[in-house]
Amino acid sequence: QVQLVESGGGSVQAGGSLKLSCTTSSRISGTYVGWFRQAPGKEREAIACIKPRGNSGYADDEAGRFTISQDRSKNTLYLQINNLKPEDAAMYYCADGGTACLGGRTYMYWGQGTQVTVSS
């Protein structure tokens, strides 16, 4: 069983930045780890992932303002978000054990999420 704990969310003004963290109890080798978000009344959407070989992948409309990274020594995944917009407000989740980068349904383990609020 993999446990994931997100942190770093908060309330920021539009144009600001946040760096979200996700600490995992362990990693499942050979699988994808990623970030997703869900706003109230909307479907969950994929943001980015780190692939088994260590390279990253992004949803087409998320590249540029979002940067995913990891520190393997700390079992921690990060998501840097720059130039935040009001439409970025959502609960942000990290997930592990995926078999497709942006395929949320393929991920086995999920954190509880960290809330991001953006004021205009």
Q: What would the keywords be for this entry?
A:
single chain, 120 residues, mainly beta, four-stranded antiparallel sheet, 50% strand
Gist of the model:
With 120 residues, the chain is an all-beta fold. The protein has strands at 4-7, 10-13, 18-24, 32-38, 45-50, 56-58, 66-71, 76-81, 90-98, 109-110, 114-119. The protein contains no helices and 11 strands.
Beta strands, count = 11
Discrete helix count: 0
The end-to-end distance, rounded to whole angstroms, is 40 Å
Q: Assign an overall shape.
A: globular
Rg from Cα: 13 Å
Calculate the mean pLDDT score and round it: 95
Poorly predicted ranges: none
Order of helices and strands: EEEEEEEEEEE
Biggest beta-sheet profile: 7 strands, mixed
> What portion of residues is helical?
under 10%
Q: Which structural class fits the helix and strand makeup? A: mainly beta
* Percentage of residues in strands: over 45%
Please describe what this structure looks like:
The protein is mainly beta and 120 residues long. The protein has strands at residues 4-7, 10-13, 18-24, 32-38, 45-50, 56-58, 66-71, 76-81, 90-98, 109-110, 114-119. The strands form two sheets. Strands 2, 4, 5, 6, 9, 10 and 11 form a seven-stranded mixed β-sheet that branches. Strands 1-3-8-7 form a four-stranded antiparallel β-sheet, with no helix packed on it. Strand 5 (45-50) and strand 6 (56-58) form a beta hairpin. The protein is globular, with a radius of gyration of 13 Å. The termini are far apart. The mean pLDDT is 95.
